[in-house]
Amino acid sequence: MSFIKDFIEKETLNRRNFLLASAFGITGAAAASIVGAGRAHAAGAIEDPTIAWSYRDRTNPYWNSIVSGGESFVESLGKPKSALVHLINEGSSEKSLADVKALLGKTDGKLALAIDANDSPNARPVVEAVVAKGAFVSTIWNKTDDLHPWDFGDNYVSHMSWSDIGPAEQTATILLKAMGGKGAIVGLGGIASNNPAIERRTGLDNALKNFPDVKLLDYQAADWDTQKANSIMSSYLTRFGDEITGVFCANDTMAYGVLEALRAEGLAGQIPVVAYDGNAQAVDLILAGELLATVSTNPHWGGGITAALAYYAATGAFKPSDEPHEHREFNGPTVLITKADAEEFKKKYIDATPTYDWKDFWGPSAGPITY
Fold first, then answer.
1. Considering only CA atoms, which of 107, 166, 169, 118 is closest in space to residue 143?
2. Domains plus CATH for the chain?
3. Coil, strand or helix: which one is 170?
4. What pLDDT does 45 receive?
5. Which helix H or strand E contains 165, and what residues bound it?
6. pTM score over 0.90
7. Cβ atoms 81, 21 nearer than 8 A
């Protein structure tokens, strides 16, 4: 398990035109057209757009899988992996937006961008910057509920998220049942403004309603970070000691830090832990009996298809505004992984990389996003 130790050691967009448009009762695509007037490329006008992925950090196994999917898509076009431009925001929304603006300037808007905006409020300025330059963008995970692709014509191509409440409730239920329906748990969540962090906490809360004899001792944001999770879990063990009979983690990388803290106290495998993301290390930990369950969101497909949607819209292969709303805001697939099916999952998704038709934009998706 040395990889866990290694893991641990290892200008704002001017919105004046939008505000003016709102003052005159103009919203959505009309407002977008004011900002991008004279700049937007017609669908199909970009012959060979730059393809970019903006994300948090490739040292994170989840994001590595996302970007690997993006690279697979780029290779399907007969291009080398190096043709994919990487915009690494390091968890900073300010850097995310600045990097996007810089690339928009460098490419003069001839850009197909796939992005997780890092937090929900940052999605709007990113989209507005892209639209103003006539580039094309597809987002994943984080956006506010009032931001919709169809309000920006074709340039905001799509948004994909994952419906995390149900799967998180499933993993939490597995945890609480493993505890015999009684005892006390601690929780570690993601960045507070992230949609998945909010939904996964809701899933835990839903599960707890069915187990009145289980107490939630504390729940803290570890910001998806292994080292921060390790520190928080160590403090939990100091504060609560033997009271802790289970741990809920909102993603796998935080679970790695939790397990390292438990190992330091000789408690690994004795206190059940659940997580989320379905990373290779997490699946190995399930097989080893140190992790109870996780959930895969098929990040390889998600990363590839998000880039594909932006690219094919930019080149005019399809017109996003001709598509129904469920093709512009949709959920990605989820797979619950426990010890009963971890070996099968490992063979199919980890030991081998499934091949995908990157023009089958919505095949594995799981229906429209509902609010």
1. 118
2. 11-162+299-332 (3.40.50.2300), 165-296 (3.40.50.2300)
3. helix
4. 80
5. helix 165-178
6. no
7. no
pLDDT value of position 44: 53
Low-confidence ranges of the chain (pLDDT < 70): 1-44
DSSP 312-350: HHHHTSS-GGGS-GGGTEEEPP-EEEETTTHHHHIIIII
Torsion of CA 230, 235, 236, 240, to 10 degrees: 150
∠336-76-365 over CA atoms, to 5°? 30
**The pLDDT value given to residue 14:** 34
| CB of 290 closer than 8 Å to CB of 260 | no
SS3 annotation, 30-67: HHHHHHCCCCCCCCCCCCCCEEEEEECCCCCHHHHHHH
CA distance between the termini of the chain: 40
What one-character DSSP code corresponds to residue 163? -
Residues 90, 57 contacting (CB under 8 angstroms): yes
pLDDT in tens, 30-84: 333 333 333 445 445 899 999 999 999 999 899 999 999 999 999 999 999 999 9
- Which one-letter amino acid corresponds to residue 318? F
The answer to whether the beta carbons of residues 327 and 369 sit under 8 Å apart is: no
